[in-house]
């Protein structure tokens, strides 16, 4: 029996096979995106903007538990020194462009122009948010994601100055905890996020927690 109410566009995530591919096609409109996130699904295109959009719901699912998040001593020291100025939603466009182009990502990322435009629309509607880390007045790094109820789905982060993205992420985790969020989704585990305390949980457990999170009247700001 499905854990979440029926989606307008997708099959139940529980019915998806092991690799988590829900299907291809659809649109990157706010209706499609919000419906997807409310059902444990997200778009993850290839770098080819002409290809149909793949939608995913991986099993297991990576999350950050607030009480397990680990801030290494060096990062704690950098935060205390206030090397970076940290802001919220000051430059969403700059953060998502940084995530798409920093390092060698240009032309090699799922953040194709259509995705950038789609998340900018979600930001304009109040569903997507960014955390910026500034160094000497310049955007040095950041993280962005989608917030619905008590869910925050962190999508990507970048840095131009060492540790800027880690400072932004640590600030985000503490902010979400204080605001009453209960689920911080990072979709897939990486060696970097594992070092910070991220874990994997079964998809069904994620969907149950998602259903509870969506009922909460939580505000990012």
Structure notes:
With 221 residues, this protein is α+β, with helices and mostly antiparallel strands. The chain folds into two domains: 13-56, Leucyl/phenylalanyl-tRNA-protein transferase, N-terminal domain (Alpha-Beta Plaits); 61-214, Leucyl/phenylalanyl-tRNA-protein transferase, C-terminal domain (Aminopeptidase, 3-Layer(aba) Sandwich), CATH 3.40.630. Helices cover 33% and strands 24% of the residues. It has seven helices and ten strands. The longest helix is centred in the C-terminal third of the chain and has 16 residues, at 164-179.
Give a quick rundown of the structure.
By secondary structure, this protein is an alpha+beta fold.
Say what the CATH topology of the largest domain is: Aminopeptidase
Q: Total strand count, please?
A: 10
In round numbers, the mean pLDDT is 95
CATH class of the largest domain: Alpha Beta
Rg (C-alpha, Å): 17 Å
Low-confidence stretches: none
List keywords for this structure.
221 residues, Alpha-Beta Plaits, Aminopeptidase, seven-stranded mixed sheet, three-stranded antiparallel sheet, 7 helices, 24% strand
Task: Draw up the topology in text.
Layout (H helix, E strand, L loop, with lengths): L20 E4 L5 H8 L4 E2 L10 E3 L4 E3 L9 H9 L3 E4 L3 H10 L11 H12 L3 E8 L2 E11 L2 E9 L4 H16 L3 E5 L3 H5 L3 E3 L1 H12 L7
Parallel strand pairs: 8-9
Antiparallel strand pairs: 1-3, 2-3, 4-9, 4-10, 5-6, 6-7, 7-8
Helix pairs in contact: 3-4
């Amino acid at each position: 029996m499905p854990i979440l109410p029926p989606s307008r566009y997708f099959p139940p995530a529980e019915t998806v096979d092991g690799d988590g591919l829900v299907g291809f096609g659809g649109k990157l409109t706010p209706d499609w995106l919000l419906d997807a996130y409310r059902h444990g699904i997200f778009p993850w295109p290839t770098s080819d903007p002409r290809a149909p959009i793949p939608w995913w719901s991986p099993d297991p699912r990576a999350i950050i538990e607030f009480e397990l998040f680990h801030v290494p001593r060096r990062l704690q020291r950098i935060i205390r020194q206030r090397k970076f100025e940290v802001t919220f939603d000051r430059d969403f466009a700059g953060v998502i462009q940084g995530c798409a182009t920093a390092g060698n990502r240009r032309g090699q990322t799922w953040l194709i122009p259509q995705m950038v435009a789609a998340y900018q629309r979600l930001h304009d509607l109040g569903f997507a948010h960014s955390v910026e880390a500034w160094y000497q007045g310049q955007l040095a790094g950041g993280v962005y994601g989608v917030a619905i109820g008590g869910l925050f789905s962190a999508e990507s982060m970048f840095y131009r100055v060492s540790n800027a993205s880690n400072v932004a992420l640590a600030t985000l985790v503490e902010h979400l905890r204080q605001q009453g969020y209960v689920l911080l989704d990072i979709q897939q585990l990486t060696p970097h996020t594992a070092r910070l305390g991220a874990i994997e949980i079964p998809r069904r457990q994620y969907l149950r927690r998602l259903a509870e999170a969506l009922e909460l009247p939580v505000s990012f700001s």
